[in-house]
Amino acid sequence: MAEGLESLESCLEQYIPPEDLAEVKRILYGGEARKLDLPAAALSAAQERDFELQGYGFEAAPEQLRRPRIVRVGLVQNKIPLPTETAVAVQVAALHRRIEEIVEVAAVCGVNIVCFQEAWTMPFAFCTREKLPWTEFAESAEDGPTTKFCQELAKKYNMVVVSPILERDEIHGGTLWNAAVVISNSGAVLGKSRKNHIPRVGDFNESTYYMEGNTGHPVFQTQFGTIAVNICYGRHHPLNWLMFSMNGAEIIFNPSATIGSLSESLWPIEARNAAIANHCFTCPINRVGTEYYKNAFTSGDGGKAHHDLGHFYGSSYVAAPDGSRTPGLSRTQDGLLVVEMDLNLCRQVSDKWNFKMTGRYEMYADKLTEAVQPYFIPNIIKE
Ligand SMILES: NC(=O)NCCC(=O)O
């Protein structure tokens, strides 16, 4: 699929009459997000380094007993800088360099927590079903070169780093996982969260490489707020978001790799709905560009063999618990989205809408326990 539009927002800005634009944004986005005044040095560095930089802020009402809890998150989306046939170590090094120059700008913008895209150290090569060389991109979550690289960034910039990688778990026979490593701003590895739901759709042949994650729904207490990571396809599963929220997540990152023909109409809805339903902030991130492979592969649908998975459409954004959202980053360019949020908004919206209070979870817990039994009888009323 062609890259097409630069972004939905640029199209709206261009074609909606100025007198209607604010109302269109209110209806589509829950209002116009406050634009952050980002440092001139950051804006010029982004331009020089050829990535888009956008910044927005979400407000909360002042409270008497709690101070505002302001945090800045940074979402990074990027293309792979080198062709997929390049030597593995060279590709990884180039991605480290690219991320380093983006994170440096995030630091100038005062970002406290940064999150990269799914499997950020590699092409999203699982469509090929080939094992080599792709499995060579896997690394230890605890002390692999990428984790060490991120620990240095975290310490240097006093920033929490969420680093989604292909993990090799040496303790369990060298098995592979799709995991996000969470590194504290002290530089310590806080832990990891493995992808719970593995796609079996289109060319996303990830089950050839790794199984469903076994780390549950961990939430990480950081100096800047409680965070969780719901990796890519997990965003189609409302219960996955719910469990991260049940464990106390105020911000849920959703590092992804997904393509226009499959999911673009779902993208603006799912993470945003999860922010509303769970009274938290959600941060979906998607890679950009089209990645080509030397060996053609088929989709198992009788169609012709092809050399790419399709266009990754970027469009990373942040949704707030009140249902408002930022505009998305570009559909075609590397980018950094800086978003300031007052985490007090989570409880304020919870007290307004009461979804946690009215959720009737005990009713669903009982019924779901029944429904997963092999001899479950659905409750269908017949004439
Ligand atoms: N990476 C991944 O899980 N992609 C699946 C496709 C989608 O969820 O949109």
What topology emerges from the helices and strands here?
Blueprint: H1 8-15, H2 18-29, E1 34-35, H3 40-48, E2 52-58, E3 70-77, H4 88-108, E4 113-115, H5 145-157, E5 160-169, E6 175-183, E7 189-194, E8 220-222, E9 225-229, H6 238-246, E10 251-256, H7 260-263, H8 267-278, E11 281-286, E12 288-297, E13 306-313, E14 335-342, H9 344-353, H10 355-358, H11 361-371
Parallel strand pairs: 2-14, 3-4, 4-5, 9-10, 10-11
Antiparallel strand pairs: 1-2, 3-14, 5-6, 6-7, 8-9, 12-13
Helix pairs in contact: 3-4, 4-5, 6-8
Residues 118, 199, 204, 232-233, 256-258, 262-263 line the site of N-(aminocarbonyl)-beta-alanine (URP).
Describe the protein:
With 383 residues, this protein is α/β, with parallel strands linked by helices. The protein has one domain (8-371): Nitrilase/N-carbamoyl-D-aminoacid amidohydrolase, CATH 3.60.110.10. The protein contains eleven helices and 14 strands. It has an eight-stranded mixed β-sheet with strand order 1-2-14-3-4-5-6-7, with helices on both faces. A four-stranded mixed β-sheet has the order 8-9-10-11, with helices on one face. Strands 12-13 form a two-stranded antiparallel sheet. Helix 5 (145-157) links the parallel strand 4 (113-115) and strand 5 (160-169). The radius of gyration is 21 Å and the shape is globular. The model has no long low-confidence stretch (mean pLDDT 97). N-(aminocarbonyl)-beta-alanine is lined by residues 118, 199, 204, 232-233, 256-258, 262-263.
